[in-house]
Specification:
With 404 residues, this protein is an alpha/beta fold. It has one domain: TIM Barrel. It is 45% helix and 12% strand. The protein contains 18 helices and twelve strands. The strands form three sheets. It has an eight-stranded parallel β-sheet with strand order 4-11-10-9-8-7-6-5. The chain is globular and about 85 Å long. Pfam families: FMN_dh. It comes from Actinoalloteichus caeruleus DSM 43889. This is L-lactate dehydrogenase (Cytochrome).
Length: 404
């Protein structure tokens, strides 16, 4: 039986590891985040409910989003061991140019609503780390101001075709003149999806001062102070709007767009053309035949048609059919770097992430976006090493099994 004794100072001292407290509250918050889920938790506390729900929510019963996340959770990784994984390389070529990581920042609307730094913060992070960033037609910073904020970033412009075709053409020309390298045409929004969280929250752009929002504002004073003391929250490509998001989409977007309109856009746009919102093999084949340089398998993050096909499930079939002729990207349901690795193994050239960096933006502005990238990078790198691969090119379908 061991005898008890008082510890010697020489034995006790090494256990004392005092940490200098960080004075910056944003840094303290972000230090607590080790996963995208942690950033989501912080974001929920930092932003009004309507704003958080706009980002976090999906359409109707949110089945599409839940299915996408469940399918990623059902992935089984099949590692190979006794491999030298001392020098993992996460870089890939996207649209003919290098990207330091196998994902892009997806286009998101109303980004300054999540945090007053908005799109400028996101493009600056994209520029520093060397990945593409897609600015949304429904962005809250202009095409030109984003270009100024990230002059050396790889910038893409996401387009919704408006009923006013002349206005759409003007946006496309402005993007080309400002140095955007790719146009991302979103094709899964002929009309607005039924985003019931927004309906129940009375979500409007800009947020209206109602008894509910005033009460919520009392619990999130920093968000409201930033909103009211910075430039007005408006659409960068729309002059003025006082209604709900769904009302705006249904008023502005053209539900008559068909595959033939791709010819018009292909002739108008000199750069790379990406088609986002593909949810079937026939549509993938059609857009490739009409000049798409890349397709994004996406159901809009579950925000349009509920119970839509799950992009990860479509991926192997679409890659097998068009992967030799065009690049195939994937979004919807991605919450970790491991999810991205799974999609790459099943044939995706890269992924698009949206909510992941928006949670970071809400949690801590530009530093929060950078934190989301740090988390995803670490998870991608570690997952690759544990799978026994040193590069994205070494990933194959044999590395994953979808368990049912």
């Amino acid at each position: 039986m061991s005898e008890r004794r008082l510890p010697r100072w020489s034995e006790f001292a090494p256990l004392l590891r005092p940490q200098v407290p960080k004075l910056n509250p944003t840094e303290r918050r972000l230090d607590r985040a080790h996963t995208i889920g942690d950033l989501r938790t912080i974001a929920r506390k930092r932003t009004p409910r309507a704003v958080f729900d706009y980002t976090d929510g999906a359409a109707e019963g949110e089945v599409s989003l839940l299915r996408a996340r469940r399918l990623f959770r059902d992935i089984q990784f099949n590692p190979r061991v006794l491999r030298d994984v001392s020098s993992p390389n996460t870089a890939v070529d996207i649209l003919g140019a290098p990207s330091s990581l196998p994902f892009t920042f997806a286009p998101t609307g109303f980004t300054r609503m999540m945090n007053h730094e908005g799109e400028r913060a996101v493009v600056r992070v994209a520029e520093r780390i060397g990945i593409p960033y897609a600015l949304s037609t429904m962005g809250t910073t202009s095409i030109e101001d984003v270009a100024t904020a990230g002059p050396d970033a790889r910038k893409w412009f996401q387009l919704y075709v408006w009923k006013d075709r002349e206005a759409s053409e003007n946006l496309v020309r402005r993007a080309w003149d400002a140095g955007y390298e790719a146009l991302v045409l979103t094709v899964d929004v002929p009309v607005a999806g039924a985003r019931l969280r927004d309906v129940r929250n009375g979500m409007s752009i800009p947020p209206a001062l109602t008894p509910r929002t005033v009460l919520d504002g009392a619990m999130h004073p920093a968000w409201w102070i930033n909103l009211l003391t910075t430039e007005p929250l408006t659409f960068a490509s729309v002059r003025h709007w006082d209604g709900t998001v769904a009302e705006l989409l249904n008023k502005m977007f053209d539900p008559t767009v068909t595959i033939e309109d791709l010819r018009w856009l292909r002739d108008l746009w000199p750069g790379k053309l990406v088609i986002k919102g593909i949810q079937s093999l026939p549509d993938a084949l059609d857009v490739v035949e009409h000049g798409a340089d890349a397709v994004v398998l996406s159901n809009h993050g579950g925000r349009q048609l509920d119970r839509a096909p799950t992009p990860l499930e479509l991926l192997p079939t679409v890659v097998g059919a068009v992967g030799e002729r065009t690049e195939v990207y994937l979004d919807t349901g991605i919450t970790s770097g491991a999810d991205i690795v799974a999609a790459l193994a099943l044939g995706a050239r890269a992924c698009m992430v949206g909510r992941a960096y928006l949670y970071g933006l809400m949690a801590g502005g530009e530093r929060g976006v950078a934190k989301s990238v740090d988390i995803l990078r670490a998870e991608i790198t570690r997952t690759m090493q544990l799978l026994g691969v040193n590069s994205v090119a070494e990933l194959t379908p044999d590395h994953v099994t979808i368990r049912r």
